[in-house]
Write a structure and sequence with these properties.
Length: 438
């Protein structure tokens, strides 16, 4: 979501003459788009600001001004503190107000003191953002839903991103068409709780995520659809069926489970049990037998016993994930879990995380290894480190490296996988293989 927001911020600023730059050194404006989900992410902001302060001062000594801004969820959650701890910051704005940036920039450049805008405005920022989209490469993000009403007891998102809001279906489809026109072959629908999408359609009806996917799949030129992140308790039968019916919907689903113990899931307020999660996975795999899953895990949630942790390992072994994000529980200010008894020792969290990641990494490697010899459609969208290398994504989100001298950037090509590592696959173009066989 932050990547998407950053792209849109760049689009808002483009009419003012700003262009994205790949270094902060000498920049007229630097915007830090921040994350508040874990303590480490939030603390990073202050060390980065310290570094930028030096650059800002060096520019000032040269008679130039660097406007320094902080946005994202740290801005939302602790905007006042950012301004206090880093008084050289010019603007702090939350993730819901960046459509007002031109006005904020004007005020900041008039040197009228620090700007703070962390409202949850009545108007939707999406209505005020430019309609034209730019696409860097052939893959694009499209935010269709924002905010969260779930209040998992560990999580800051409902406080920083606000209440759940679904964009109208027509606006989403028109942005999708614009993206395809601008070169996107693959679109990923985004939302903190994307499967609870319920957007208003022009006839007054409400569209679910499944309906939106089916309609978007009709867009000519769009080859691949994905969505993230899903909340398991709200995956409905129509969305499961879409995995069977919609060929453009990729067979890869990020479905965070967090833990494999009912006691912990209850304390987390996740609204699903372990068995319900398992049953959901079974249904999804019946609909789409090659569906690959990824997930999020938290270890060391308050009160997590060794038996609870073992139950999480068991769930992982039974379900199998080809990819996963796993974290030590990080107490966040203002969330109920931060005040719970039985906080887990840091050393225990570290140990559990290492054990969990070893199991998950082995599953990733096994899945990648099983792809050797298979031919996969790969959307090539980046150059590799070595000359003549292109990198792309398989349907299962694996990074695939291909050596080719042909101009295949931003194309979907069939690649036969020749070797596999934990982080990527190596392959050769299928048509080259056919030539070799003939
Ligand atoms: N909406 C998504 C997740 C958004 S946050 C969902 O419900 O699954 C992304 C991930 O960060 C979460 O899935 C969780 O695993 C992790 N996370 C959130 N708060 C955390 C905390 N306080 N400590 C550690 N990990 C956390
Ligand atoms: Fe956070 Fe996701 Fe839970 Fe919402 S559903 S509170 S975003 S973990």
């Amino acid at each position: 979501m932050n990547v998407y927001d950053s792209e849109r911020i760049a689009e808002v600023l483009s009419p003012l003459g700003f262009v994205p730059w790949d270094t902060t050194d000498g920049a007229d404006m630097v915007i830090l788009n921040t994350c508040h989900i874990r303590e480490k992410a939030a603390e990073k902001v202050y060390s980065e600001l310290g570094r930028l302060r030096k650059q800002k001062e060096a520019m000032a000594a040269d008679g130039r001004r660097m406007v320094l801004a902080v946005t994202g969820c740290v801005a939302q959650a602790e905007g006042e503190e950012v301004l206090k701890r880093a008084p050289y910051v010019d603007m702090v704005f939350g993730p819901q107000t960046y459509h007002r940036l031109p006005q904020m920039v004007a005020e900041a450049t008039r040197a009228s003191g620090q700007q703070l805008d962390t409202d949850f405005p009545e108007e939707s920022k999406f209505d005020a953002l430019p309609q034209d989209r730019t696409v860097d490469g052939a893959t694009a993000f499209l935010a269709i839903q924002e905010g969260c009403d779930k209040f998992c007891t560990y999580c800051v998102v409902p406080y920083t991103r606000g209440a759940e809001y679904s964009r109208p279906a027509g606006a989403v489809l028109s942005e999708a068409r614009n993206l395809v026109q601008a070169g996107a072959l693959e679109i990923t629908f985004l939302g903190q709780n994307v499967n609870n999408y319920h957007g208003e359609a022009s006839d007054g009806s409400t569209w679910s995520l499944a309906r939106l996917i089916r309609e978007a799949a009709e867009i000519d030129g769009l080859e691949r659809l994905r969505f993230t992140t899903s909340y398991p308790a709200e995956v409905d039968d129509d969305l499961i069926a879409a995995h069977k019916d919609v060929a453009k919907l990729m067979p890869y689903l990020h479905l965070p489970v967090q833990a494999g113990s009912d006691r912990v899931l209850k304390a987390m307020n996740r609204n699903h049990s372990v068995d319900e999660y398992r049953a959901l996975v079974d249904k999804l795999r019946i609909a789409r037998p090659d569906l690959a899953l990824s997930s999020d895990f938290i270890v060391g949630f308050p009160g997590e016993t060794d038996a609870d942790f073992r139950a999480t390992l068991k769930l992982i072994e039974d379900v199998t994930f080809i990819q996963a994000y796993s974290f030590k529980y990080s107490p966040r200010p203002g969330t109920p879990a931060a005040l719970m008894d039985l906080q887990i020792d840091e050393a225990v969290k570290t140990e559990r995380l290492a054990e969990l990641q070893a199991v998950l990494n082995a599953q990733t490697l096994a899945f990648n290894a099983a792809c050797v010899g298979k031919t996969l459609p790969v959307l090539l969208d980046r150059t590799g480190k070595k000359p003549g290398q292109l990198i792309g994504r398989s349907p299962y989100m694996q990074a695939v490296v291909v050596n080719t001298s042909e101009p295949l950037m931003n194309r979907i090509v069939d690649v036969t996988i020749t070797s596999a590592g934990p982080n990527s696959l190596l392959g050769t173009l299928e048509k080259d293989n056919q030539k070799a066989c003939a």
